[in-house]
Amino acid sequence: VLFDGSNLDAWASDKGNAPAPWKIENGYLEVVGGSGGIHTKGEWQDVQLHLEFATPRKVEGESQGRGNSGVFFHGQFEIQVLDSYKNQTYADGQVGALYGQWPPLANPIKPPGEWNSYDIVFEAPRFDAEGKLTRPAYATVFLNGVLLHNRKEING
Hints:
Layout: E1 11-13, E2 23-25, E3 28-30, E4 38-40, E5 47-54, E6 69-73, E7 77-81, E8 115-123, E9 126-127, E10 133-135, E11 137-143, E12 146-154
Antiparallel strand pairs: 1-4, 2-3, 5-8, 6-7, 8-11, 9-10, 11-12
């Protein structure tokens, strides 16, 4: 469990590994504007991750300017978080995309302010003793129970 609704002990700021600057509000994490990203203190290889998120209830902006964030694995493989509800943007940048590489198979995002759930299986890349890639990274992604990617290879 990386977040139990009460503390950020498992998290650090992306800005110099300081304490995570986000706030806890009614048992959930809320981004503090301008604070940047956070990451787990632990290091992971293959993982199965369940997370829930809501984009801002008040719609401001369009395309990538609406509720834009991401879930990063190994600091480089991104599963896009975006308010893609009735929001036109580029295909590999919408919610559920393997950002910059693969668009999702569907767009099952709920309206702004409602909770969505991701279930992500991430298989880390493998390297030999010399650092040569022997197996790429893969991701299987569900958003609100809808399959978006089935063991899709991620470049990086």
